[in-house]
Design brief:
5-stranded mixed sheet; 162 residues; alpha/beta; 6 helices; globular; Nucleotidyltransferase, domain 5; 5 strands
Length: 162
């Protein structure tokens, strides 16, 4: 694996802002919330864990902070087709430790973003396994999602560099 890890971030902006970080496989890395949490602080804190690849929200109308986070980090936005209900958020986050509703919302946003991209991520792994190139997984996933190119094209561009 390369020296960095791709991350999926869920963000719940507000007076109390929360974020959740998942790795590319959907495993929880951390959840945090605080009052008056500024965007620059969130970016600084999240990039300590790796490279933000996807930023998710639980709202159909994308909050401004999420668009700004995406613009500053190069992460791709994952926006649900509708506002997630409390019931859905409770179901998605069941058994996961969150300290408040903001953290639960951020975690639900991250999980939803992961679910949206999971079929594509699995296709990448399947093809790389067939090609015996599993070590390129992080790079290929990053290129496929960020540049919206085919898995084969991403693999070709990595092979040109190597």
């Amino acid at each position: 694996m390369t020296g960095y890890k791709h991350l999926i971030i869920g963000l719940d902006p507000g007076t109390t802002t929360a974020y959740a970080i998942l790795d590319i496989n959907g495993r929880l890395i951390t959840v945090k919330s605080a009052k008056e949490l500024k965007l620059d602080t969130i970016i600084k804190e999240t990039i300590r864990y790796g490279k933000p690849l996807i930023i998710g929200t639980d709202r159909k109308k994308c909050p401004n902070m999420i668009s700004k986070y995406a613009a500053k980090t190069g992460a791709v936005k994952s926006i649900p087709a509708y506002d997630l209900s409390e019931t859905e958020k409770n179901h998605l986050t069941k058994g996961r430790a969150t300290r408040n509703a903001h953290e639960k919302d951020a975690l639900a946003a991250a999980i939803t973003a992961h679910k949206q991209y999971e079929p594509l991520l699995k296709r990448v792994d399947k093809l790389l396994k067939k090609e015996r190139k599993e070590e390129d997984s992080e790079k290929v996933k990053g290129l496929v999602i960020t540049n919206r190119i085919s898995i084969k094209k991403a693999l070709e561009s990595i092979n040109k560099v190597n």
